[in-house]
Amino acid sequence: MKGELAAGREPLLDVRAVSAGYGGMPVLRDVALKVYPAEIVALVGSNGAGKTTLLRTLSRVLSCTGGIVMNRHDLVPMTSDQAFAAGLVQVPEGRQLFNRMSVHDNLLMGAFRRHNRAAIAHDLERMYALFPRLSERRRQLAGSMSGGEQQMCAMARGLMAAPILLMIDEMSLGLAPVVIEQLMDVLTRIRDEGVTVLLVEQDVHLALSIADRGYVMETGRIVHSGSAKKLIDDPDVRRAYLGF
Ligand SMILES: Nc1ncnc2c1ncn2[C@@H]1O[C@H](COP(=O)(O)OP(=O)(O)OP(=O)(O)O)[C@@H](O)[C@H]1O
Ligand SMILES: [Mg+2]
Fold it and tell me: Domain 3-87+163-242 - what CATH class?
């Protein structure tokens, strides 16, 4: 689903005039953003721009003003548990795995709200097919794995919740290019299977190279948006974020 084609469809996530902050200190100002079904949307911007704050606001960890509608549900009055139950799943910055639990148990934790055991078992095998590295390490403690393996585990745990929208914060941070390539490959595969992804990245080039559309955030505001190709070709974006 490329950006221009998405325009006529109903968005899966519709964020309107959202403002939020910490203890009265404003961070997000009037943020508007749409994500259409089965798109990868990149949210990029420098350190401190407010990307994580936006994800935490969408996850309903932070209170806000404005509108957040996902899959026709109004998320604003929801708690974070309710938003999770509605299908909004965040893979947090720093992964936050259960380090003393096995890979397998971490994945099962992702499915803790689901009850259909056959579907959970099916999805576990799907995760092990998607991430063969995890399959080899089912019994290994999550905390003893490499950074790349931990990111795979965090993504697989998020997918085990059967998300409608998967939000990933700083997927590539600190990882080797070969691992990043594998993770990007997984993202396009799950997108093609119908999972919608909101990807936060400091690596603007990387994010726009995989995304269908993107948003650029500066000091809590969206300053550029459009198809990934349009953003890569935008002289302002190139100068500020791509260095050429
Ligand atoms: N818990 C908090 N309490 C107070 N201020 C915070 C808190 N978390 C973040 N901030 C502030 O909010 C602003 C946006 O931070 P945020 O973490 O959302 O940025 P970011 O775009 O995710 O940056 P990075 O790329 O470094 O992860 C920053 O000025 C930051 O200092
Ligand atoms: Mg952040």
Answer: alpha beta
